[in-house]
Amino acid sequence: MASKNGSGWGFMSGLVVGSLLGAALALIFAPQPGAATRTELKRRGVALKSDPGSVTATVKLRANELVDRGKLAVREAKEAARRTREEYERDLDRAQREGGLPTHAGGL
Questions:
Q1: Cα separation, 104 vs 108, whole angstroms
Q2: What string of DSSP letters covers 83-103?
Q3: What DSSP string describes the chain?
Q4: Residues contacting 30, CB < 8 A, separation 6+
Q5: Interatomic CA distance for residues 60 and 26, integer angstroms
């Protein structure tokens, strides 16, 4: 897991900056008159300046959601691996008891 000063936060801030730049470029190259584009850029810039904390809060919220989803996926994968191992061990024991396999199966 990346620390707060690690590459995870650098990635998220880069993602936000890249998204903002992409949105600005999309507005610049959109098929509309120059005056309308400049007005839209100004409007969005003012909105961002007036509430930059909302962008940060949104990024943190999404990052936390992704971390939680990742933790859940890891727990589910561990549980699935545990069940698979138990099934394998039961099948191996059964095969050994029925004489289908030698009693030493390669150190398993």
A1: 8
A2: HHHHHHHHHHHHHHHTTSS-S
A3: ---TTSHHHHHHHHHHHHHHHHHHHHHHHSSS-HHHHHHHHHHHHHHHHH-HHHHHHHHHHHHHHHHHHHHHHHHHHHHHHHHHHHHHHHHHHHHHHTTSS-S--TT-
A4: 37
A5: 25
For residue 25, give both structure tokens: 């470029």
Rounded CA separation 43/104 (Å): 74
Question: Half-sphere exposure (CA, 13 Å, Cβ side) for 35?
Answer: 0
- Going from N- to C-terminal start, the domains of the chain cover 1-50, 52-100
Tens place of pLDDT for every residue, the chain, 108 residues? 444 555 566 777 777 877 877 777 776 666 666 677 677 777 776 666 666 667 777 778 888 888 888 888 999 999 999 999 999 999 888 888 888 666 655 555
